[in-house]
Amino acid sequence: MHKGFYVILSPQDYSNRIISPILFIDALMAFLQKSYYVGLLSAASLYGAAHQWPQEFFVMTRLPQIRPTIKQGIKINYIGRTNIPEKYLINRKTEAGYVKVSSPELTAIDLIQYQKQAGGLNRVTTILTELAEQMDAQKLDANFVSGIPFAYLQRMGYLLENFTDFTELADKLYAEMIRLNKIFPRQPLSPERSIAGFSTDKKWRIIINTQIEIDE
Fold first, then answer.
1. What integer pLDDT is reported at residue 8 of this predicted model?
2. Confidence check: pLDDT of 70 > 90
3. How many CB atoms lie within 10 A of CB 190?
4. Which of its termini does the chain have fewer beta carbons within 10 Å around, N or C?
């Protein structure tokens, strides 16, 4: 996987020839001297909000980005960031120790930001409907909001308000954004689609240029 890094397998893992990355990712990142956290679909699945493909695992790391690792049925997708928001990480216990995982709130905004890597906007919205149950409105505070580009916050607020049963999350997010006294520029719901001829949500200033379909 990485020269000089070794994993001790249990007899069961050895017979299957596959070991879950959740069991060794913390040790691997320490070996590579990389700040990291488990994110996107992998984090969502730990909160019971995604049914991901078992052969894919998502890790956010500090730049420069690491190339994907594919070996013996294990695929680790690395996504590079300029900074790792330690304040919004959770140490989650595993059979092999602890692993850093994005909080539900950070997981949600990451899914919005990296929607293409996460499988598209429909899948992200489907996950958000379940992940919202684990989110805490009080954690969507000024510190959280001030560190994120407004476009992503607008999209998340619009989706929370219109596609989940947890509108208090959207209300809290909106209140904190208003408190920053910033203008909401019009933003497309889908950044990859045309915006011509589509209506705009008046509150969130989101151009509704795609139809959301929730997976059942």
1. 62
2. no
3. 18
4. C
* pLDDT (tens digit per residue) in 84-135: 999 999 999 988 789 999 999 999 999 999 999 999 999 999 999 999 999 9
CB-CB contact of 105 with 88 (8 Å) = yes
Q: Using an 8 Å Cβ cutoff, are 209 and 198 in contact?
A: yes
pLDDT in tens, 46-64: 999 876 665 789 999 999 9
**Residues ≥6 apart with Cβ < 8 Å to 72:** 17, 18
Read off the pTM: 0.90
C-alpha span between 19 and 123 (Å, rounded):
26
